[in-house]
Known about the structure:
It is a single chain. With 274 residues, the protein is α/β, with parallel strands linked by helices. The chain has one domain (2-162, 185-214, 263-273): Rossmann fold (3-Layer(aba) Sandwich). It has eleven helices and ten strands. The strands form two sheets. An eight-stranded mixed β-sheet has the order 1-4-3-2-5-6-10-7, sandwiched between helices. The chain has a two-stranded antiparallel sheet with strand order 8-9. The longest helix is centred in the middle third of the chain and has 12 residues, at 134-145. Keywords: Methyltransferase, Transferase. This is SAM-dependent methyltransferase.
Amino acid sequence: xxxxxxxxxxxxxxxxxxxxxxxxxxxxxxxxxxxxxxxxxxxxxxxxxxxxxxxxxxxxxxxxxxxxxxxxxxxxxxxxxxxxxxxxxxxxxxxxxxxxxxxxxxxxxxxxxxxxxxxxxxxxxxxxxxxxxxxxxxxxxxxxxxxxxxxxxxxxxxxxxxxxxxxxxxxxxxxxxxxxxxxxxxxxxxxxxxxxxxxxxxxxxxxxxxxxxxxxxxxxxxxxxxxxxxxxxxxxxxxxxxxxxxxxxxxxxxxxxxxxxxxxxxxxxxxxxx
Length: 274
């Protein structure tokens, strides 16, 4: 089921069809180790009712649904959400049975537009996208807390230490071109814990997961990284060809002799309780 959010929610500026598809087809899979590590730790399965904040194109939801979880996703980007619908609510002519993920629901906006399915509160809430802005994420987490059962797990994810994230050096291109005084959202330090506290959540642990970014060629690497949204301000300040050119130059040290591009990264997640 795909529905619109409650009045008053601000939608995220939609990416072009190409940008949304680049995220779904190139970049989103880089975070699969993070999704799987969290699901293993929380024993996500048939008894799980999961709410994904900033669910994007739905890959994390798809992996949870494959474990038997009932999943609900919210996102402010309508184009990404349309791709999530293709994955989770496929039409019969696409060769998948609708019943396979019949418990999936997708909402354009935030948790404020979500009704608790069947009166059963969520048992797990996730916010995996490290590009989610804090000014939107904190209210979204508060709203999600009202939909979750007491003690439900709430997971926030972000970049690990900059010295453990090769991509942090590449993202300096975005900072320079956009003229940003503050770094792009890579160095989080205690940011995840602070966000959880501001949302009224109780901290209950953390973890780190290796999430290498690997691409078959330079073009895919550029398109994948731009699709994250972390280069949006740089594109607005200059133009897309300039960003692509300088990003390719910054990626050159990570290009291997066979033409593939690989950057080693560590992502961090915080586990909290509603």
